[in-house]
Amino acid sequence: MRLRTGTLEQPLPDAVAHDPSSEGPPPLAELPTLDSVGKITRIAQTTGELYLRIGPRAEDPGPRDPESGYRLPGVPACSLLAEPWWLDSTATWMARQLARRAHLVSGDAVAQLITGSVAGRDADGRPLIAPAHPLAWISPSAFVEAEAMYRSWRESLL
Q1: Which residue in 36, 104, 119, 149 has the most C-beta neighbors within 10 A?
Q2: 89 or 14: which carries more pLDDT confidence?
Q3: Does the residue 15 lie in any domain?
Q4: For residue 8, is it within any domain?
Q5: pLDDT-derived band of residue 21, with 50, 70 and 90 as boundaries?
Q6: Per-residue pLDDT for 16 more than 60?
Q7: What pTM does this model have?
Q8: Which residues contact 130 (CB under 8 A, 6 or more apart)?
């Protein structure tokens, strides 16, 4: 799959080349790891609705609401699609979303890009995605870059 930008074509990471409808999602061990906001942004520009999932690295047998213990109809995630009111670049929106959630990535919690349909909302209003189709892991270096980009953008507003 290729991304068309003006008259130039740029190859996309293998994460986007996988067709989830063909044979199901690739095994988690085979997912590429994205190390920059730019790579994540390119995927977002070609994938449509894209979500950030932060959770355990292993396959989750079924997410549960932590307070009630009830089984959730999907995995909690955060939309990475820029809102229509956002007037800045898609990369700045992506950096903002990653920077605001960087503190959640620690210990056993890792970050993953997924696609899928909204099956409901959790108790905090986050969309629950089912079925979740994993596209890629996000490396810690992408979060460091996102925090620097977001900080620079905020300072430019002052």
Answers
A1: 149
A2: 89
A3: no
A4: no
A5: low
A6: no
A7: 0.80
A8: 73, 74, 75, 116, 117, 119
